[in-house]
Amino acid sequence: MEHKRLTLFAGHYGSGKTNIAVNYALRLAEEGKPVCVGDLDIVNPYFRTKDSAAVLEAAGVELISPQFANSNVDLPALPAETYRLVQDHSTYGVMDIGGDDRGAYALGRYVPYIKEENDYRMAFVVNFLRPLTTTAQEALEVMREIEAACGLPFTCIVNNTNLGNETTRDILDSSKAQLDELCRLSGLPLWLTTAEEKLAAQMGQSVFGLKLQEKYFDIK
Amino acid sequence: MAERVLMKGNEAIAEAAIRAGCRHYFGYPITPQTEIAAYMAKKMPKIGGVFLQAESEIASINMVYGASAAGMRVMTSSSSPGISLKAEGLSYLAGSDIPAFVVNVQRGGPGLGGIQPSQADYFQATKGGGHGDYRMIVLAPASVQEMASLTIKGFDLADKYNMTAMILADGTIGQMMEPITFEEEEIRQYDKPWALTGHEGKRPHNVVNSLYLKPEELERKNFERYERYKLVEENEAMWEEYMMEDAEYCVVAFGIAARVAKNAVVSAREKGIKVGLIRPITLWPFPKKVLEQAAQRVKGFVCVELSMGQMIEDVRLATNCKRPVGLVCRSGGMVPSPDEVLAGIENAVKGVY
């Protein structure tokens, strides 16, 4: 897998950015690279990058996340260390951006550094089974809103179409028409197709496997 | 066949409300329910509806009062501290006998509390919150699918009985994502001859009001209202029973606590403990009969709650304290683990309550 120095995941909220960012950072670490993950999500109160803090730490991945993430206050402040992700070029950076245009505003202040270094991948994560992005046209609207909010154009697409634990190969395959249309409309290439790791293993090397955390409320 | 989609609980409420014919949303943002407002803000303008972010919770509940008085299907949503602010409006809606649909995605309290999940507004939802003699229909979803189905049900019950139906969810169910289906179902329409739609000189004008000048008249209104509430209690209680056929112990839990409890019941069964679960789906009317019947058969109950123990009082009342009732609880935004619930079940077996 070929990597850029900095990889950013943005998209509609609930599209799977956080899980993909965590798993991508783990992949970089497996390949022996120094990695730092930045949680730039200023909109989502629950289910954050910080939930994976132990997994990331065990893999030697550094995590920069807001001081108040997973706490009892909703205080959308980013720590000063976040600048290291764009200023320290010796470490691979992975940025998990908040959902929609509202979440992407926080990225804006780092964009001049990102453009100056110019060694990045800005990935648009899409799940065509999310009700506000079921078509290429709707997804494109979200894409343009995010770009307008943060000032950084997307460079590629990540197809994370899924129905949670009901995802099958057919479900992933059924997203192909909308995906092709989104690539055509945006002029951007598909970079990754992602799926939960067991399904991904069945689908061969072309699908990037995601290890998902079990939650206390999952019905066994 | 209807399409299956992946949704957050909060989004499911918003989409279901639109499908139920709600075209008026008034609210004020608060974590962890803001996705409801965000979804409405995006969708309502496209379908000819109204999304309005009011200047406060008090303003928004009074906008609901106004729109409902005009005969519209209307809703508001908030989280714990915001519902406290709406309490006066809830009482006025009840006193005026008009329908409304209100969502509380609970967070930790009291006071400003915190943004993590909670069920500590059980008393507020089922026993009042606002002033005066009144009730609300209180629905407690335990999945994203139920966030949708109980929203459609809630709008129907509100119109059917001219009262407020409230979804009492918690932050986890609001924020979590699950695949769901929206079935094409017929939405029942109700005549609203009392609605303030303009009399055009053709009929006497309608008045929607909760002020009665004579105490005799106010008392009569309250008596009438409670006759209606009695019908709701007789006809609308909903619950789920799980592994109760041969159960010697009964866990009682609603919403997210019931999901955790279900996993604990499975673990206890693996250890040979005959335990089942009763999950109230309506918290008012409380499913008294099923608990009363269970009390004839089981040796004890264990309540699981994300509060210091509020529903436990209704379990004791419904069972006339016939059997001991244990409590497994976490508070302030914490959620009990399946192991903690299992320990509570094992304590009940040992006779420790």
CATH top level class name of chain A = Alpha Beta
What distance lies between the first and last C-alpha atoms of chain B, to the nearest angstrom?
49 Å
Helical percentage of chain A: 25-40%
CATH superfamily of the largest domain in chain B: Thiamin diphosphate (ThDP)-binding fold, Pyr/PP domains
* Residue windows where pLDDT falls under 50 for at least 5 positions of chain A: none
Essential attributes:
heterodimer, A: 220 residues, alpha/beta, Rossmann fold, 8-stranded parallel sheet, 9 helices, globular, B: 353 residues, 2 domains, 7-stranded mixed sheet, 5-stranded mixed sheet, 12 helices, 19% strand
Explain what the structure shows:
The complex is a heterodimer of chains A (220) and B (353). Chain A has helices at residues 17-30, 53-58, 84-87, 100-104, 111-117, 136-150, 169-173, 176-186, 197-203, and strands spanning 6-11, 35-40, 62-64, 92-97, 120-126, 156-159, 190-196, 207-210. Chain A has 220 residues and is an alpha/beta fold. Chain A has a single domain (6-216), classed as Rossmann fold (3-Layer(aba) Sandwich), CATH 3.40.50. In chain A, strands 3-2-4-1-5-6-7-8 form an 8-stranded parallel β-sheet. Chain A is globular, with a radius of gyration of 16 Å. The mean pLDDT of chain A is 94. Chain B contains 12 helices and 14 strands. Chain B has helices at 9-19, 34-43, 57-69, 80-96, 122-127, 144-161, 171-175, 215-235, 255-270, 288-297, 311-318, 338-349, and strands spanning 4-8, 24-27, 50-53, 74-78, 100-106, 137-139, 164-170, 177-181, 239-242, 249-252, 275-280, 282-284, 300-305, 325-329. Chain B is globular and about 70 Å long. The N and C termini of chain B lie far apart (49 Å). The model of chain B has no long low-confidence stretch (mean pLDDT 97). Classes of the chains: A alpha/beta (220), B alpha/beta (353). Chains A and B meet through loops of A and β1, α2, α7, β8 and α9 of B.
